[in-house]
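Weekly modeling sync, notes
Attendees: S.R. (lead), two postdocs, one rotation student

Agenda item 3: backlog of single-chain predictions. S.R. asked that every request posted to the team notebook include the full sequence so nobody has to chase files. The rotation student volunteered to paste the first one in as an example of the format we agreed on. Action items at the bottom.

Example entry:
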Amino acid sequence: MNKTCMEFVLKSLKDENFEGKRILEVGAYDHNGTVRAVFAGLSPDEYIGIDTEAGPNVDETCSVYELINRFGEGYFDLVVNTELLEHVENWRTAINQMKAVTKVGGLLIMTTRSRGFGYHGYPYDFWRYSYEDMKDIFSDSEILLLENDPIEPGVFIKARKVKKESRDLNDISLFCILTGTHKKSLTEEEISRAKSLPLKELELLWYSPQRRWYRRYIRTPWRHIEKAISKLLKGNP
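Predicted structure, as returned to the notebook:
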């Protein structure tokens, strides 16, 4: 988690009152930083950090796909996750589960990576989300903050749940880091391959300069791509 993720979470908490509230952190295992300390002084009634394996900052082992079964719908006032969404195979189920356990009127705060950010499999890496993707995914919510990461390809969102029913996400395709294409879902073969190769071998494979998408979207400086797109949108050659 880079410093801008933490800064976004801090900004998202400004003017919010979490005293006596219930907070869920999804993907709470402290690999490279955690937001838990931020909430310590806000006096929540309950703060639960979940992950698929026990470890630092994890109060309970639970899959993101099992949130409704474990906690029930509308249980939390805030659901937060940082740098999780790119690592889940079934992103639709993950997001639907997090939306479902959030109360109507409650908040969701998420940070994730965008196209242009390199492969980082901890343990796996599948998806990249754009500003427009997040705007579409949370079109059933009141989007309070939506920003691109200013220092690395990534996107941050703070949204308020305004109704119980969630948007159908089946029409949305995301950029897949494994294939270099937009996809609605992964095939069993793609998932199996990602899980069978060691991390070092996967990184060597997907960072290979022989892959056109790598040369175009990863090795090329992100700021240069941004400027080129901006010029095209303004009609400048």
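Discussion: group reviewed the output briefly. The first strand starts at residue 22 and ends at 26.
Action items: rotation student to repeat for the remaining queue; S.R. to check formatting next week.
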